[in-house]
Amino acid sequence: MSEHDALILKTIIDTAHDHFFIVEPDGRIRDVSPGAAAVYGMSCEALRATSVQQLEADGVLTPSVSLEVIRTEKPVQLEQHTGTGRRVIAQAHPVFQHERLVAVVSRSMDMTDLQLLQQEYALLQRRFSEHLKRGRVLEVGSESLEAELGGLEIKSQLMREIALLLRRVAPTDATVLMLGESGVGKTAFARQLHAWSSRGEGVFIDVNCAAIPESLFESEMFGYRPGAFSGAAPGGRVGLIEQAEGGTLFLDEIGELPLAVQTKLLKTIQDGTVTRLGDNVPRRVDFRLVVATNQDLSARVEEGLFRLDLYYRLNVIPVTLPPLRERREDIPGLVERQLECLNRRYERDKMLARSVWQSLMGREWLGNVRELENVLERAWLSATGDVIRHLELGEIPRPVMESSDAELAESISEPVAVKPAPVLGQEESLTSVLARTERDILAGLCGELDSTYAIARRLGISQPSVVRKLRKHGLRIGRAEA
To answer: I need a surface site. Which of 81, 134, 208, 287 has the fewest CB within 10 A?
Structure first.
C-alpha cells in the first residue's frame, strides 16, 4: 500500500463513528479505531498488543465476531457484551487475496447510548403529557384547534395532545418521525403538519419507500444527469428530494430504505445538498423532512438494516400515533367523514342503520383507519338501498337483521354463550360507558397479572399505553409493579 493510500485509510478509521478492528487471520489485532478504547475499556495500544482470542477469554468482549469470521470465512453480524457493561452490534467481513483469508475487518455500533436516549424520550413524553394536563392547554386551545384540523377527525384527548404537539413544532424545520401501526393515519398527520408550517404553500412530496424497487431507488430519490446509465431519459431527471424544494418531503415506510440510499440521505440531511447520479456537482436543497414507519427502527439498527447515525438524525421529534382501538372516541367522526366522501364521490345520500354502530364501535380494527374506511366503502357499494344495514367484517360475525326467532334458531348449529352488554345509565353517554368498561377490565387484570408488560401482552397494546390508562383510571397493580 502506498503512503498516500495508508494516510487515507488511517483518516477513515480515526474519524469513523463506528469502532473498527483490523484482525490478522491468526486473531492478532493489527489496528483499531480510537473510539474502540471507550467501548472496550482498554487503550488502543493495549488492544493492538493482544488478540481477539485473549479479549474473549478475558471477558473484554463476548463473543468475538472476528473469530467467527475466521472460523467460517463468511460475513458475520452478532450482538456483543463488553467488560465495560455496554451492548454493541458487531459486524465483521473477511478480506481475501488470491482466495486466501488475509484479514478480518470488523466494526461495532454501541447500542447503549441508543437505549439511554429512548428512556430519556419516554420520560420527556410523560412530562409533556403531565404539563398539558396541569396547564389545561387542551381546554384553552380546543376551540382554535378544532378550526385548524382540516380533514382530520379527532375527538380523543390523546390525539388532541398529539395534534397540539405537531402544531407547536410545525413552524420549525425540525425532522419529525411518525411512528405507529399501519393505517393509523401517519400520512394524514404529516399533511396537516405541512399545512401548519411556514412551508404550507409549498409542495408536499409523498414517497412510499416500500413501493419503489431498490434498483430504481437512488435515481428516483436523487435524480440523474442525461446518459447517467443505460435507459436514462435523454433530458435527465429531477429527483424527489429536489422536487420538494421549498416544501415538505414525506418518506413513508422509511424502515424499507436501502442501506446505500440511507448513506446518501444522511449526507443530504447533514450538508443540505444533493448530487444527481452521473454528476459530481452538489446542488443546494431546502426542504422539511418528515418520515414515518410502522417498524421498530431501533430493532432494524440492531439487525444491521438501518444506520445508527441516520436513526439519530431522524429521531429528532418522534410522534407515536396510537391504534384506533385505543381511541374509539374518534370512530364516529371518521365514519361520518368517510360516508360524506362516499356520498359525494358516487352522488348518492346513503346512511348507516343504527344497528351497525355496535359492530363499528366494538371491533378491534387491526388495520386501523384504513381498514375502517375500506369496510365502509364495501358496505356502501353493496347496500341496495339508501340505508347500510350490513358490514363485511371478516372474522367478526355480522348481526342477523330482520330474522324471525325460528330462522335464527335454524342458523345456529351450536349453543353460543352471549356476554351481557354493558348497561347504559340514564344520563350516561357512549364515551362514559366505554371508559367504565375499560376501567373494569383493567381493574380485573391488575388483580390477576403482576406487571404492566403482562397486561399489555394480554390486551394486545403497548406497555406505555397500559401505564397511561392505569394512571387515567387511578389504578395500581396489586403485586410488584405499578
So the answer is: 134
Measure the CA–CA gap between 326 and 312, rounded to whole angstroms: 28
What CA–CA distance (Å, rounded) separates 57 from 66?
A: 14
How many other C-beta atoms can be found within 10 angstroms of the C-beta atom of residue 122?
13
pTM: 0.56
Q: In the CATH hierarchy, which fold is given to the domain comprising 3-109?
A: Beta-Lactamase (3.30.450)
Q: Where are the domains of the chain?
A: 3-109, 114-322, 326-396, 430-473
Helices then strands, counting H and E runs in the chain, come out as: 21, 17
Cell 351481557 found at? 420
Query: Within a 10 A sphere around the Cβ of 211, how many other Cβ atoms?
Result: 9
pLDDT at residue 273 is higher than 80: yes
Strands 176-179 and 288-293: parallel
Cα–Cα nearest to 224, from 266, 264, 267, 252:
264
The length of the chain, given as a count of residues = 482
335-361 pLDDT, tens digit per residue, is 988 999 999 998 888 898 888 888 888
| Confidence at residue 138, expressed as pLDDT on a 0 to 100 scale | 43
Q: What is the pLDDT of residues 215-271, one digit of tens each?
A: 888 899 999 988 888 777 888 889 999 999 999 999 999 998 888 889 889 889 888
**Which residue in the block uniquely carries the three cell numbers 390486551?**
459
- 372-382: average pLDDT: 90
- What sections of 36-101 are H helices per DSSP? 36-40, 44-48, 52-57, 65-72
Minimal CA–CA distance to 319: which of 161, 154, 139?
Answer: 161
Residue 455 makes CB contacts below 8 A (sequence gap 6+) with 442, 445, 446, 449, 466, 477
Q: Cα dist. 56→66, 73, 382 in Å?
A: 10, 19, 66
Crossing angle of helices 259-271 and 214-222, in 10° steps, is 20
Rounded CA separation 263/310 (Å): 8
CA distances from 351 to 356, 384, 399, 403 (A): 11, 12, 17, 21
| Strand, coil or helix: 163 | helix
CATH top-level class for 114-322?
alpha beta
